TrEMBL record:
This is MaoC family dehydratase. CDD domains: R_hydratase_like (cd03441). Gene3D superfamilies: Hotdog Thioesterase. It comes from the Bacteria. It comes from Novosphingobium lindaniclasticum LE124. InterPro entries: HotDog_dom_sf (IPR029069), MaoC-like_dom (IPR002539), MCH/BMMD (IPR052342). Residues 23-138 form the MaoC-like domain.
Length: 156
């Protein structure tokens, strides 16, 4: 019997409804070593030309051991699409509605980052549901470099 391919049914993981999600579920991203090329690309995209991000001597004079990776670039590593979370949401996903973070430690080129999202809360709304996740990024020394929350809106 021939397999009938349907692109609408192409899924990486089984999708789930809002009611099937569980508080405490963790969605990890692959680890990533930040390179100077990443930092340069982010600098070009963000138009943030502060020398703290690319000038080694300036960074040292300012008390840093090396140029500091942009905080927003570290935040970008928590993008839900870098995990399986949006694939789990599937077609019930409506929007990424909120983000809040705190930066705890500097990140430099050569650091390896380990981002994760954990479901903290599931709030039913009128015909919709809000998913709140904690977001964390640790480095290769097990230091917490970023923490915060994301919120997403789903159909119920």
């Amino acid at each position: 019997m021939a397999f009938a391919f349907d692109p609408a049914n192409w899924a990486i993981v089984p999708t789930r409804t809002f009611a099937e999600l569980k508080i405490g579920e963790i969605f990890r991203t692959p680890s990533r070593t930040v390179t100077s090329a990443h930092a340069a690309a982010f600098q070009a995209v963000s138009c943030d030309n502060h020398p703290i991000h690319y000038d080694e001597e300036y960074a040292r004079r300012a008390g840093h051991s090396a140029p500091v990776v942009h905080g927003l670039q570290v935040l970008a590593f928590t993008a839900p699409g870098s995990t399986l979370l949006p694939h789990v949401f599937g077609p019930v996903f409506i929007a990424f509605t909120e983000v809040s973070v705190k930066f705890h430690e500097e990140v430099h080129a050569g650091d390896t980052l380990y981002p994760a999202l954990e479901i903290l809360a599931l709030k039913p709304l009128d015909g919709r549901g809000e998913v709140e996740t904690s977001v964390t990024v640790h480095d290769q020394h097990a230091r917490l470099v970023l923490s915060g929350t994301h919120k997403y809106l789903l159909r119920r």
